[in-house]
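With this grant's support, we have paired protein sequences with C-alpha cells. One protein thus recorded is set out beneath this paragraph:

_____
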Amino acid sequence: MSISKKIAHKAEAMKGGGKKTTGRATGSRRLQAEGRGDQVKGNIKQAGAKIKDVFKH
C-alpha cells in the first residue's frame, strides 16, 4: 500500500473524529453520527491496508 493511501486513510479517520467532537460540542447528533461513520470507515481502511501489507511480504 502506498504511503499516500495510508495518509489518506488516517486523515479520513481524523476528520471523522473532528466532526464527532464538533457535533458533541454543538449538540448536533447528525454531525456526531456522520463523524463516527467517517472515523470507522477510515479505521477499517487502515486495518485492511495492514492486513494487505502482512500478506504482501
Notes: The chain has a mean pLDDT of 91. DSSP finds two helices and no strands in the chain.
